[in-house]
């Protein structure tokens, strides 16, 4: 049989293939309008759930950043302690969901005021519409939020009292807020469901998966404090420097052998990795205790981590074993608790830590 005949035969069978695969059950029809309505409900729920997690992260991280100023060197800025937003700052396909969940529109609104912050002391409330900052109008519409953020940061950088003209329940009023200092590192939440958190030298990122894993605000403060430890100790830049040296060696070897690998770069990037993690754990306990969180139960975080990841109990990779971290955090907690009882300032003994890690 020719190829042309085979092709004709195949085409003639296509209708029968579709018939053979067709569903045979009588199913109820779903109204497309109801499907669209359900989609909007689920989007609103997604926004509400995400914002609750992000606000919880902020409630914990703000005191860590504010009370950690003494550990952050010259990386210090000013803050007020309220979450704000406008609809232009939201992806278009999610704008209706944010309108439904948070009441956002084209104006800049306060969506959350965090406890024990300058914004709370000034009397801000969720739903307040910000109209002016120090006599300068806050515009609505496209790019409203970006322009507002620049306006506000410019005023905050002075460290002086910021005067706001706001609208609340349709009535205008004035609020005055005195900015306070905090460590100049952003704490962000990613939508990744993996249980993880990391630092990049300028920010701390906590995944949605980690937000679901931590059992208490104390544990969350430990996680944020740990990543802050990486930032303030300069671990990211040190690792980058180590990788650069390794890459140079890879290049020299390639010049001799004609084959380039990342072996030296990868190995150099892991130099002192466990020591860096130990430093971050140590600094994390100080960050959380200075912020008023209790480190007594902090070691249990790593006991649970070990139970959920059995390989890490006895096998050290770039991180110490979970068994070691449990015991190490116990000692760290005892150290800071002892200083608290003695009325000493909670400052880490970095020289002793470096000597112990050699």
Describe the protein's topology.
Blueprint: H1 3-21, H2 32-67, E1 76-79, E2 82-85, H3 95-102, E3 109-113, H4 118-122, E4 129-133, E5 136-137, H5 144-156, E6 162-168, E7 171-177, E8 180-183, E9 186-190, E10 197-199, E11 203-207, H6 208-213, H7 217-232, H8 235-257, H9 263-269, H10 273-290, H11 298-308, H12 311-314, H13 322-341, H14 350-357
Parallel strand pairs: 9-11
Antiparallel strand pairs: 1-8, 2-3, 4-5, 4-6, 6-7, 10-11
Helix pairs in contact: 2-3, 2-7, 7-10, 8-9, 10-13, 10-14, 11-13
Domain PDZ: 59-139
Cofactor: Zn(2+)
InterPro entries: Mito/Outer_Membr_Metalloprot (IPR051156), PDZ (IPR001478), PDZ_sf (IPR036034), Peptidase_M48 (IPR001915)
Structure description:
The protein has 2 domains: 32-67 and 76-183, Pdz3 Domain, CATH 2.30.42; 186-357, no CATH class. The protein contains 14 helices and 11 strands. A 4-stranded antiparallel beta sheet has the order 5-4-6-7. A 3-stranded mixed beta sheet has the order 9-11-10. Strands 1-8 form a two-stranded antiparallel ribbon. Helix 2 (32-67) packs across helix 3 (95-102), helix 2 crosses helix 7 and helix 10 (273-290) runs parallel beside helix 13 (322-341). With 358 residues, it is an alpha+beta fold. Belongs to the peptidase M48 family. Its cofactor is Zn(2+).
